[in-house]
Protein 1
Amino acid sequence: MFPPNSRYVSLIIHCRQPEAVDKRYVSLIIHCRQPEAVDKRYVSLIIHCRQPEAVDKRYVSLIIHCRQPEAVDKRYVSLIIPCRAHLEKSFHFDCLREKTSYITLNNIKNCGILVIQMAAEAAYLKYYTYRRERWKEKIMEYTNDRGALTLKFPVQSFRKIPNPYLKEEEGDKEAAMYVAICDVKELPANIPMETNPREQRLTTNVAKKIKNSLLDPAAFDFYLLNRGLLLSARTVSFDNYSNQMTIVFEDPDVHGNVDGGHTYKIILANRDQLDLGQQYVKLEILTGVENIFQNLAAARNTSVQVQDKSIAELEKRFEIIKDAIGSEAFSKRVYFKENDSGDIDVADLLAMLNMFNIHKYPGKENFPVVSYSAKKKCIDYYIEYHKKFGESAENPYVKMVPIMCDIFKLYDRIEISMSRFYRQKNQSGRYGSVKGVAAPKGGRSLESKFYGKQLDLYSPTGFLYPILGAFRALVKEENGVYGWKTDPFAVLERVGGELVETTVERSRSLGNNPQSVGKDSGNWKTLYITVMFDMMEL
């Protein structure tokens, strides 16, 4: 098994001074059982599995031993990790056949680690390496003695999800899942990203939507609307006293951000505009998934199914709307399918139009709350009507064409006038102090949704949608098309103060929650009746 003259040398690997080795005696000899026979006069670097104390530190740059990392002399070395590191691929070096051989540092793997492993019977030398410069970058990035990155940060909540396949006697050997909610301001900025298979492009419509959702000053549901981050880690722990979570990322090849790269980068780029406690993000952390990592990354990064609106656009079902708004300036900003340019979603238009469908909502008994709570249903309603009636006169949306642009203008007028209407009923009050209402930050300006009018304050859609929906009371059908019973803008000026006051007071009664107001059918009904009575008094 061992070459001749093995009594002289166990293992000699020379990294920086090969010229110092007397080649008459030394080639490359691996010996496991007689380290005491090593002649230390000729050796630059000796790695021995069980006796690291035998290393002559005068010549060694850096030696990392599996159990004694503190013994490393950091003044001189490169990096050597012995025997216990196991990687997927290997380079085999036959020590028995070569009399004089030197290990060359090649750019083989992006981990920056030279691995030396003894093969029991074949006496092979396995190794991985990377450029020394790249390793220096990595070693600065990771913090503990094993080259692992440890992140410790506060979270709002933490829970371990039990593994249904894990038997009690198997302990923690199997995969485990953890879920935490973290303030975006406290999310670490150095979560490894090498494990994410996607290149993050922050200029797409999806990225813009994530950013808008994050920075929405009146929204408090980012952690619900966004899928959050999926992380793979070696270990996860939680301190109940400090409410801090500790995550250890050990292997950069399989530990890090698996999914949610866009969300993560958008948070880092924009969170300075937010206050602590304003927005949160969900973290899903998986441990023990190293063996299935490739399948995990592929499965979690599969593109979502094509949205119904994209299919509808392909089938040319939106021509009714395109023709109706074609002359309006905002028409170029509406996007009808995924990844299309524009900043106004056709789903928003359909949600507003649904409020005025007097065929579906003929009176004061049923109210289009789904326009706020479930915009997806508004898309479905539109597609169903189009499949049934096409672009014939029987389609309610065809009937709606004469008033369609008025609806969007009315929305803008309401949005612009909210502060003014509030002061009509609360002369000493400040609309900006109402929960959910927000002023622009960081020099940003606010504009109305469709026509770009200047706004002094942002109003939540939970306020705006029910107020807009109240004006369905003014819609009538005549000669097969929809029209107004009276001028909606004039009615708005008369009852706007009452509509806003009712909405704000309802929000306060529901815990100062604009979202609850938007979903409250009672509030929709009250506002509708207010508009209806004003019209009846004329």
Protein 2
Amino acid sequence: MNPYALIDLHCDTLTDCIHKGLTPDTLDDPNRVLSLTAIPSDVHWAQFYAIFIPDQHRGQAAIDYYETNRDNFNRQMEKFHDRISPCRSVSDMHAAWEAGKTAAFLTIEGGAALAGDITRVKKLADDGVRCMTLTWNGENELGSGHTTTHGMTDFGRQAVREMEDRGILVDVSHLNDTGYADLFETARRPFVATHSNARAICSHKRNLTDDMIREMVRRNCLIGLNYCKSFITDGGIGDSPDDLYRHIEHFFSLGAYENIALGSDFDGATLPTYLNTPAKAADLYEYFLENVNKRKGNIDVWYNAPGKKLIQDPQTGIIHGVIIEVNGAPKYVRAKNGVILATGGYENNPDMFRNFAIMQHAYSKGARFNTGDGIVMADDVQANIVNMGNNNGPDPNVINPETGISFGYMVARSKDSAWAGPAFTRHNVIMVDQDGKRFWNEAQKTRHGRVPFHGDYVHLMMPDPAYMVFDENARLASKIYGSWSEGSEKEIAAGLVKKADTLEELAKIIGVDAKGIADQVAQYNKFCEAGVDPQFNRPKAMLKPLSKAPYYAVQVQPTFTNTLGGPERNQNA
């Protein structure tokens, strides 16, 4: 069995038989690059033979020129039937290979072959044509080539749709930039650029821009590498296979891992010496394979490369890759087996939090870069988004005024408690709302920010703002907050901790009802004396009175750990 297959999407050999009039109409002329004898016998070869329609041919002249070359194609297939076989399908191609023959597909370079008659699309399909470029260099009834500036015509758009329906691949090589934009709006199915390279590597207008390549990747289109020297390097300078491989590397950088094909332009262009025979083209395959294999097992890692958009097939809905941003520029990454969204929740996307969370405002303790990117990308491709209102919180916590971020969990191990709870609860600390009233058991054991309620855990109904109030005994007992200074002296000096000689004065500073807080502290101190908290059932060991001036207050605000919603997982996948 032959070691590998090679499919070449474009050559001008068939037209060269007649157009130049140099030799009899034979596909096995030794003066041509692509003679049947020159094709390596140890390679399964499939060749797209193009009928090139020169720009000067229009109307009936174009039809006549096409039919002359079509008839010659059929004549050559019969003449060399023992070595080449005409094909119209993949199964035909494999049958030819199994018989030890070259597989031949009939194509057209130049939509002028339609002569402006839409019914001719069916005629071409019946003739066995399986691919057609819309233009050559100039203008025709379908649109404009790269030497002109106009886009596609209304007839051209109609022809594209008809070609798609009749099983003729739309070929965009030679189409100008405006025409590409028009085609992107028109095409419903994948198309092909049979012989085009990357314009970022070689600036010739015949080559594809990065935006064109990205769109073709998104649509699962093929791009055939062109061997023409003028399309490989600027000015056609250089004669190394590395020159062509730079195009491949660039295609890879745009996610075109499964989109690259070959489109030699044999017998239609000036070729570099390393590609001027079919055998050398076959060797080039080995060269490319060697270079590609060097990449195997290597994982490209891009830092500061946020995901922007999933690449989805518009027909099947299948996700083929993702667009990321690297150094401010988009990069298209093709995924062979799928895309894993491991982008976290929407903890730090304020708009999403307001729209979905049960809290209208809260500070996140989660990763700063969890901004819901993955959820947005999944929603854009109509994934089923579930549980968006589910999150872990809120917790009362202290916010760093310089960063707007929580200092961290208000958690510390206490000798009075078997669990980790708010750091302040081993001392005489309470939390109050703007009325000066307590709103929960400050020593409450929580579960990811949720509190027990009749056998279940629910979100804490927390006022915003709220304040932690404590006295001098609490301040001197230990650090009020784990990362703060001894005695919280720096925090007091900075104004983060408010200080006053009386509760009434403290209330005025923080904007809390003075009578309310005085009454609440008096009531709480009675609970401490009795050893029972009928208000919120705070444990006896953690009931310590607020009795020694001065008094202190720190604002606490709702914080949460993470959100739990996102695209629904297919358990059968």
Protein 3
Amino acid sequence: MSAENLGISGLIGPRPAPPEWPIAPEVEERVPVEKDRPSLGDLNPLINFPELTRRESIKALVRVALEKIKKYDGVIPTRLESNLVCSVRFPTAIPQLRFVARFEVDHLTSEQINLLEKLVKYTYPVKVRTRVGSDGKDIEPESYPPMNPGEMGRSKTAGWYMGPDQTPTDSLHAGLFVYKDLGEVSRKNFLEEGAPAKYILEVREVGMYQTDLVQFVIQVASVLGREKIIDPGELLYEVYYDLLRLGLKDVDDRSIYGMGDVTAQIKRGLIFPLANLDLSRGLGGQPESVLMVGVPGTGKTLAVEELLQQDTGVLIIPIDPLELLKEMSKDKDKQTLLPRISEVSKRTGKRVILHMDDIEILAENDNTHSTLLNLMAGVSESGFFLIASTNEPEKIPSSLMQPQRFGVLIYCGLQSEKVRHEILKIHAIQASSNLGIPLFNSPRERDLILSALAAQTEFFSPRYLAQIINVAKSYLLERIAKQKGQLAGLTEGDLAGYTFCLEDFERAFIYVSSVCDRLGMKKRDEQLRGIVRRFADGHFGFHSNGASPGNFFESLRREIADSGAS
């Protein structure tokens, strides 16, 4: 059968192909654009598109997609990658990156196609093109270019494109392609017995939120495997947290030692009441937004990251205040950030907590300050609550520092000697484990060194305590390199027989002490404590590391126990 009979002669007619046409190389074969660890807001997969040039970004998408497909017994894709492709309409144009998930199945029922159509309509909030035409009748399978332009001259396809209603459906087009490579088989018996056995389905995307893209791929896999669409809201919730957690540091109770009371207060004042809203209101309670105050490096962001590792039953969405500023500078009809978050809240059925570091940035801008006030004025109606943090509460207007805005005020202060000792120990153990060498010559040596460091690091924030260990590690490697007579190319074998010693920590302590302004930290810590005390009137707040008042409940507990016993 000729190309003319298939209706694709205009697309595969003679034309010179560009030399060394870059056809679909895997992203692993490309030099990635690597970045330093981004902020929480940068990581947020709900409001960010995939970075198709970053190896780690693609790995995260693929990992979550495959894990969920296996969990829900879907069909495993034969291809799941980011690749380069040229437009078949403009073959000399600059190639573009896109994400592709390819499935191959032996059978495809009409019911499955119907489910795929429903899935496409749910995925794209625009007019979509499916197998059904505007007259309500099935569209005959049509021909269109295969995914790889290099197959153009030898591939005769037939099937359907399902996605945003734009034509023609060239290689750069986004959506779901369902087709067969027919060879000499007519389009008309596309679904009939005797046609080629293998059906090919491809999700092709160039611009979709990370969560939505992964969910789309998982849903297609589920339809092909189980003939079932997974609950979209629940799946979106799962995919969001799975993707977000892959970008976070390994955070647990040990790595945020000394901040447990902070996370506990956030849970009591906001998360538990919000996740159980009807019950909370029945008990006369109400969730309250949280403001954390403290000098830099005391673990405010880490406390939120620890919460993100847990299934809280709510959506905690990190937002960069600078991104919100940029959003507020746009015309209202062009804003996407808050409408997107509202949409996700409705789709998942989950209440939303916005997390923002350095909230004073917003308060300094009149436009954004007004938006924030309006947002927080009716938090129970809007569905948005805040976990915010600041190092400069004096820059926040008094209109925001009110119990009806932030009902929970938490001071994150500098740690006690005991807590500093534990933080140093945690980071030292991690460094030892990473290098694969003993931490010290003996437990007594370890206790002596770390205890001395803890005693001498008053007014050091956890950030500087971690830096001492990191610098000590650098001095250890420097010492080994000098003894080995080589500055580079050290292997794990070269580390054998070595351990941290007093000299490493002595040099590290001297170095970090020279850059840590302890007197300045002390002064600023005292200033912030005073500010928090002034604002705390009418708030349910506490000092995260302050001394506890005498506990009269202990004697009361004994009295009740004695009374019961008698």
